[in-house]
Amino acid sequence: MVERAPVLDTICHAILIAGALLVCVPLYFAFVAGSLTIAEVQKVPLPWLPGDQFVVNLQAAWVKAEFGRTFLNSIVVAVGIAAGKIAVSLLSAFAITYFRFRYRMLAFWLIFMSLMLPIEVRIVPTFEAVANAALPLQWLAEMLHLGDLWKWISGHDIAIALEWNMVNTYPGLILPLIASATATFLFRQFFLTVPDELCEAARLDGASPLRFFWSILLPLSVSNIIALAIILFLFGWNQYLWPLLFTTDKDMATAVIALKNLIPRSDNEPAWNIAMSGALLTMLPPTLVILLLQRWFLKGLIDSSK
Amino acid sequence: MNRKTAFIAALFGVLAFAAPAQAARVEVQWWHAMSGVLGDRLNELVEKFNASQDKYTVVAVAKGNYDEVTNGVIAAYRAKRPPEMVQIAERGYMTMLLSGAIVPVQELMDQKGYKIDWPDFIKPVASFWSYKGRMSAMPFNSSTPIFWYNKEHFRKAGFDKPADTWQELEAQLYAIKAKGVSECGSVLPGDFYWSLLENYSAINNQPYGTLANGFDGLGTEFVYNKTKVVSQVARLKKWLDDGVLQIAGQGFSPEQLFTSGRCSTFVNSTASHGNIERNAKIEWGATFLPHENDVNPPLNSTIGGGAIWVLKGHTPERYDAVAAFLDFVAQPETQVWWHGATGYVPATNKAYGLARERGYYKDHPTREIAVLQLSRGTPSENSRGFRFGNFVQTMLAQRTEVEAVFTGQKQPQQAMDDAVKRGNEILRQFEKLNAGKDTEADGKSK
Amino acid sequence: MNAGSPIVLSEASAAPVAQPSGLTRTQHAPPGGAVVGRGAMPPRPGRAQTTKRGRPDREPGLKRANFGHGPGLPTLLLLPQFLILVFFFFIPSLRALMQSVLLSDPFGNNVQFVWFDNFKALFANGEYRQSIVTTLWFTVAQNVITLAVGVVLAFATDRVVRARSVYRTVILLPYAIAPAIAGILWAFLFNPVVGPLAHMLHALGIGWDPNRNPSDALWLVIMAASWKHICYNYIFLAVGLLAVPASLMEAAAVDGAGPIRRFFLIALPMLGPTVFFLAVMNFIYGFFETFAIIDAVTHGGPAGATNILVYKVYVDGFVNLDLGSSAAQSVLLMSFALICTLLQFRYFDHKVNYGV
Question: Where are the transmembrane segments (chain A) (predicted)?
Fold first, then answer.
């Protein structure tokens, strides 16, 4: 803080409180609905004050949605998506901003294009791709008439040998969701702001590009990585359609799938009390992640100013 | 696997699958769209089956709502990993029937030697799910809309019960509003196109499309812009404008406006029984849907809900399991249990008779309304059901047009003309795609 | 060398014109990535040279101080990303988009090639044109609201000392909610019959009814979509503000600039890259990722008033199973979005100040 400005600070607090309220009003009503009995939750209008069934409903939601198991799946998937996406994106953003090569812009735009067809729109062919990720290899084999050769070598049919099924596996859940450019674009933006002097100095010292990446660029990026990790974890946590359509094994269901099964649909008892307490439960792990990761926000900045 | 293969397989990152060890029980999957309490009941049903014998295990997998289940099956089928059974909503009938991906249920049961009393299925149920007189899917959760009302409201307004005709009902609802008994006479159901337009047409013997509503061929065209449907839409619009009818909108179930005692009547599926019996704190009653005063006698209503389809591409042992399960589903005992547990209608006359015999309807008189309404009179060409391709798509186009009436952007006639025009384009698309597939004279043989 | 490559299509502006082509060619001569770090780099163009207009003539999106041009290492670095993209994005996407020239049943057992019938049907469709207009309104309004609120909240967070991480956590919460639940909550709060916030509006004399008033419905989905996305903008802006050197701000303060003035004169320009990133991402978000909220809040109604393009793609493909039309719409939507993004890069990426 450079100087004292009590009026402005008060206004800032007011703005933040307003923002927090804006966030909390919908959540408050989720809490109210989650604390009523099923008969109360059907009243019109909904009461403004919570009832006394919150714990009961939480327990019911926890048991019905098997959150013990589904939370675990969701954490694996969300961490996998966040870690995987950050790792591949750091590398590709580094390549795109720090190297001059022929297809640099083409590479960037190809990666960028992956933002423009959400998985929900290409879900059937993506399913096919993951049900058998070796499909392109099979086509290639077919095209090159490798089948007969393979049969001669191995005595097996090539289409069977070249099958790589990822249905009901974690990689199958995670990999298609890593395929998008958000993180690459963010790191590109960030790397472009990194002072050129750092790279020049590293080169003068004879540091290799990877060394520069590892010991200079990466520490500088910590705040952005953390911010992105939070965003990606929440993104992964909230994935619904892909895990739903893709998993056929109950043991692979994620928390949001279980939550959606709590939400009443037509012809059904409108058990919004259970659904809403379930919704609040599913927010817990993401909230913890936000709280924990925030601590590292300042780390990269402090390291770099050493 | 020899060493060479193993090496190359490892090179490609191939996961090779050994043939699964012969399991004691044959396991088959059933993907379904039931959530919440209905999902619990469905799981109970499956557990009953699994416990009833020791050869087969059915695994019920909840795959989201009907749209999500459908897409899941399509994706899995295209990837050559379909489940054995899937629950599909009534509107998907033609898509499934002509998909080339299914095994007709009756064919399967005949082949596996199960004697199912097919003619015993209640007529609108049987005619909806059968093709050329043979059942293509096993009826599972069948419902039909009935008329729910708040007894206290009617009493306070000086009426014994709701009137049988729309005209008299309108007078009653306006009286209820005028006397300040309740804030709104009725609430618009979320699936109003099903209850207030389609079932309305069947009950009032109005044609919805040509060629017996599509039963006689893919060349069918919508004609509801020339029937009483137009005045029905105009009626709903008038009620909305006068505050007699309320739209619940998103984020809130229309049913709650009725069960909370805010609105006096509600047209909704008989499957609401499960919830209303348990949770509604109002003094409620239910009766038949109203009909127009110049239509006498009113005809049967039609069904909604879902059926179990069997998919192609599995081994004979698995089809043994499927057939055993479907036989279990068709048993009168199972039907009666499901009827009582959920509020869906029993699909066969035997099951209905059994429920009656046991005095079930003495305690639950309103639960009989759906069956009585479904089997009322002799079905005409207009009340056998609806057999339109891409029926979801035509319905959504229609819903948009009706909404345009509600928002005041279009006059009812104009909107229905546009809906029919859009619907017919969609039907032609389906006809073009399925050209040459024989659907002529379907249902006439029976 | 650039003339024949797609680079020209995307970034025709600066590089190829200003760069002597002979120099470019010699730069590509050394094979492999061997040049790196030997100090044998030829003088990098742009280091000293500038064009007559005074703009540094470097390639857009490339560091001035870079590791040169060995194709080996960058290819290796890009490989993981590309393998994943090829298998799980490009191949499935191409197969999805190929549907746009087909008439097919959803199970794929009955497929007819229909040339451009699906596209023709779209252009002849008034509903589709209405959807384009709605999408533009929706995306622009959502982008402006999200970014503006995000900037204000980030600025305020940067000022306050107490309870900073509490604010940050609370403001990030909407991102922790499944979109469908967020949509249900918003639809409920503003439900004209039972919603508490709708009742407040009614008490203020506003005849709020998203079920029967198309513009109310559009505002509702804009608000709901923004609410869900403000936190995304907020977190990156907040992190960006942390990185603004205190020395610069202090120097400005000594010169007598107040906090707000300093924010606009120093901090915000330094956040340029982040703001540009967010503007593009908000645009992508509005265009492609909002259908779950639309589905929960309005179902695209009433009478198609909130039926934005991506929701239509989703409904036609996923609900109506009209794969051909849905794919054709995807092709059009992607092309449109790609053009818009290219324009954004073309006009704004150069204006963004990446130097510190």
Answer: 12-39, 75-99, 106-124, 173-191, 212-237, 271-293
